[in-house]
Amino acid sequence: MVDDFGRLSDLEEDIETNADSLEPVNEKEDMITNLASEDAFGKPAMDSSTLDQRIRNWLYILSDFKNRAPADLNRSLCVRTLISDLCSRYSYNQFLMVKLLDLFPKEIVEVLEANEVDRPVTIRTNTLKTRRRELAQALINRGVNLDPLEPWSKVGLVVYSSQVPLGATPEYLAGHYILQGASSMLPIIALSPQLGERILDLCAAPGGKTTYIGKSKNNDLSNI
After folding, report:
1. What superkingdom heads the lineage (predicted)?
2. Is 175 annotated as a binding residue?
3. pLDDT at 35
4. Residue-range domain boundaries for the chain
């Protein structure tokens, strides 16, 4: 990525060798406020709202650094301080934050906020034993609030809430479904296993994709 953020990958070595420079700097009063209190280590103790404001300020400046940055503000220092604030706010290490910011420079806050939200629980129907519609009705009768996953999946169900443990229902114990993330189903759809193929599965644990491969052609596949 080359824009006002620069090449963040070039900062990685600098971050490792100059960790002290990642500590928040003294910005102008119109940018940063409420820094009076200190923690046990003598560093400014900032709450989440203060960090959020700082992050918004840094992103605003970096989006048009030439026209928005104060004359005495160094771009590299601005980026490093932004990384420090993001790490403090979202509890990421500096290495990972640099990678994420390099991938999503303008959407970084949205990406980090999305990671704070619990992902939905999804299950995959074993169509060798039942149909998705029949499974859904059986689980609804047990107090499970669910819907079909997405148009791209003919076997997935998304569960919003449940009055019973999903891993202990008679349907689960009978092998009518498996708990499996939606993203884990996509590789098998993309793979589109065909009859007679031999498939080498190098990531078989706990076996969600492996069993999905077998189910795809009524277990008439050689799965290694």
Report:
1. Eukaryota
2. no
3. 38
4. 8-115, 121-223
Consult the annotation and say whether 154 binds a ligand.
no
State pLDDT tens for residues 170-191.
Answer: 999 999 999 999 999 999 999 8
pLDDT at 4 > cutoff 80: no
Which is nearest to 191 in space by CA: 170, 169, 217, 218? 217
DSSP 42: S
Answer whether 159's CB lies under 8 Å from 123's CB. Answer: yes
Give the residue among 93, 89, 79 at the shortest CA–CA distance from 112. Answer: 89
User: Rounded to whole angstroms, how far apart are CA atoms 109 and 19?
Assistant: 23
Q: Which of 138, 201, 219, 209 is nearest to 173 (CA)?
A: 138
Q: Is 203 annotated as a binding residue?
A: yes
- The answer to whether the CB of 70 falls within 8 A of the CB of 43 is no
Q: Is 78 annotated as a binding residue?
A: no
**Is 24 assigned a ligand-binding role in the annotation?**
no
| 121-223 classified as CATH 3.30.70.1170 | yes
Q: Binding site annotation covers 156?
A: no
In whole angstroms, give the CA distance from residue 152 to residue 150: 5
204 marked ligand binding residue = yes
Distance of alpha carbon 24 from alpha carbon 56, whole angstroms: 14
